[in-house]
Design brief:
With 85 residues, the chain is mostly helical. The chain contains 3 helices and no strands. The model has no long low-confidence stretch (mean pLDDT 96).
Length: 85
């Protein structure tokens, strides 16, 4: 694997991790409410599990998958963070 492929793969992993972290922030914000919505918490936990599986499925040699993952997960993290703000 070239340095460029390694860097792209690592960036995709970080994008997924950013989305997982955004869901963690959403969970924390919901838990901090006087009456937390358990549905929101459970849905966020489910998404974190799904993201972990998808992260495991990333293949460093699949350039299209890696490029798409970087964009998709960065966008997802941004969208989830907006829900927390």
């Amino acid at each position: 694997m070239s340095n460029r492929e390694t860097a792209a793969y690592e960036a995709a992993i970080e994008a997924v991790n950013g989305a997982v972290g955004a869901y963690s922030a959403l969970i924390a914000a919901e838990e901090a409410k006087p009456v937390p919505d358990q549905g929101v918490i459970e849905a966020a936990l489910t998404e974190q599990t799904r993201l972990a599986r998808e992260r495991e499925g990333l293949r460093p040699d699949d350039h299209a998958q890696i490029a798409e993952a970087r964009v998709r997960y960065a966008d997802l993290a941004r969208e989830v963070r907006e829900r927390v703000a």
